[in-house]
């Protein structure tokens, strides 16, 4: 799976970018926020976190500036009836933090601004993601130490889910180093 691209930005459109990586041009669907951030980067080296959507007739890449936006995109894809284009549409209206706040507070207004997402679908997104994002927000509300430990575990090759599951029951007052050490013990057993 292609999860990250670093290469020369050859073309920038309002819906996609073409990035040359060692002579191969990858067409990556992007949000308006990514277009804005890359607007002065033509013919320079850029990096995007990517998601490869495999369909019967195509392989489509979706690109994001931050791992947080990519993670939210992947969460949105877990909602039945939401495909990559709808998920990208949601992130085109609001960034990952805004979507997270909308889901945890039950505010459907951002979601209904997306073409093709009505009130019922927005409520479905909130219902299906509230538990997933609520647990994450609650876990990280104890401070950024849990987030640092999670990033450390991910750097060691563990998935986001494995890292979060390993840390979620630990005391909130532990240092990132202590959290990481205890999580590694838990994951190793």
Account of the protein in words:
It is a single chain. The chain has 189 residues and is an alpha+beta fold. Helix content is 49%, strand content 20%. The chain has helices at residues 32-38, 67-77, 84-93, 96-105, 119-140, 145-155, 160-167, 176-188, and strands spanning 4-12, 16-21, 24-29, 45-54, 59-64. The chain has a 5-stranded mixed β-barrel with strand order 1-2-3-5-4. α2 packs across α3, α2 (67-77) crosses α4 (96-105) and α6 (145-155) packs across α8 (176-188). The radius of gyration is 18 Å and the shape is globular. The chain starts with a strand and ends with a helix. 28% of the residues are buried.
Explain the layout of strands and helices.
Blueprint: E1 4-12, E2 16-21, E3 24-29, H1 32-38, E4 45-54, E5 59-64, H2 67-77, H3 84-93, H4 96-105, H5 119-140, H6 145-155, H7 160-167, H8 176-188
Parallel strand pairs: 3-5
Antiparallel strand pairs: 1-2, 1-4, 2-3, 4-5
Helix pairs in contact: 2-3, 2-4, 4-5, 6-7, 6-8, 7-8
Quick recap of the structure?
The chain is an alpha+beta fold and about 190 residues long. It has helices spanning about 30-40, 65-75, 85-95, 95-105, 120-140, 145-155, 160-165, 175-189; strands at about 5-10, 15-20, 25-30, 45-55, 60-65.
